[in-house]
Known about the structure:
By secondary structure, the protein is mainly α. The chain has helices at residues 6-19, 24-31, 35-42, 50-59, 91-99; strands at residues 63-64, 79-80. A two-stranded antiparallel sheet has the order 1-2. The longest helix is centred in the first third of the chain and has 14 residues, at 6-19. Mean pLDDT is 77; it is low at 73-87.
Amino acid sequence: MQLRTPSDVGRAVRHRRRALGLDQAELAHSAGVSRQWIVALERGKEGVALALVLRTLRVLDLVLDARPQGQGTSETRTLEGSDHPANAIDIDAIVERAREPRRRP
Length: 105
């Protein structure tokens, strides 16, 4: 599933949550956010905090896979549960590196 808009992310989250048999309150508790925040995310509200989105995706065991358009399998999926290509970008590693204090030469 390609994710191009906040609504796409919301639909993917809702689909996965339902597939796991979770209600919005259970997902919110596991992700450490409010149920109202989950509602906003699933509705595709713009401006939700990226860190919270990533944490919610992690709870749902979803991987955000960012790669240039046209690369990947014939059925390009940018949000997937367990199958992700070896050349996928690890967004968690990028966020962690950004949090590390910068060393001066």
